[in-house]
């Protein structure tokens, strides 16, 4: 019997969200009530990058492909789990770190990076000085025949390389410019007991969107 692991955080009211005006807190309210309408429905307000989610190229690439344009082959298939949990807060992952870890798996198109950063989920620490990839490391990844990377951190970029900086999110731009899909805030990566597994990443199908929350699962 297969092992199935949910790699997705619950979306709930008051949950952690990126501290910026272009990411909003989750709001949920009851519309239909069993006591009156004899059914339950809800109104939900959240941004496209809430919880476990994917970034489509248009998130950072002007006129880039949107969620609607992403072929399912980029979201479903064999993946490899790469353990980078040795990295501490603020550490930079180098090309050498990746070459050492990936040399046996260069034929796999989907890479999931485990930093053990989920230990800080639902706390301010989650968005504080997470480990990140050097620009050269991302350039190395972009030259491989990959179409998807995932991670349990908020971003592949250095946390200070954000909005209004001279080097605003360069790693995002390199990856998405190559149409390599990014999945952030992945959950339960420590529960995956195989290096190689089948990955399913199924975002909400929002027409023309820059990204969306996704249900992600590993099966082996």
Question: Which descriptors would you attach to this protein?
Answer:
about 220 residues, 3 helices, alpha/beta, single chain
What does this 3D model show about the protein?
The structure is a single chain. The chain is an alpha/beta fold. The protein has helices at 95-102, 135-143, 170-177; strands at residues 4-6, 27-32, 41-45, 53-55, 76-83, 92-93, 110-114, 132-133, 148-151, 181-184, 196-203, 211-219. The strands form three sheets. It has a seven-stranded mixed β-barrel. A two-stranded antiparallel sheet has the order 2-3. Strands 6-8 form a two-stranded parallel ribbon. The longest helix has 9 residues, at 135-143. The radius of gyration is 18 Å and the shape is globular.
Give the strand tally. Answer: 12
Give the SSE string. EEEEEEHEEHEHEEE
Strand proportion: 25-35%
Radius of gyration: 18 Å
Largest sheet: 7 strands, mixed, barrel
Low-pLDDT stretches are none
Structural class: alpha/beta
Helix content bin: 10-25%
From the structure provided, what is the oligomeric state, counting identical versus distinct chains? single chain
CA-CA gap between termini: 9 Å
- Domains counted in the coordinates: how many? 1
The CATH first-level class comes to Alpha Beta
Mean pLDDT: 95
**Helical stretch tally:** 3
Question: What is the annotated CATH architecture?
Answer: 3-Layer(bba) Sandwich
Please name the fourth-level CATH homologous superfamily: Putative cyclase
CATH topology (fold) name: Glucose Oxidase, domain 1
Strand order of the largest sheet: 4-10-9-7-5-11-12
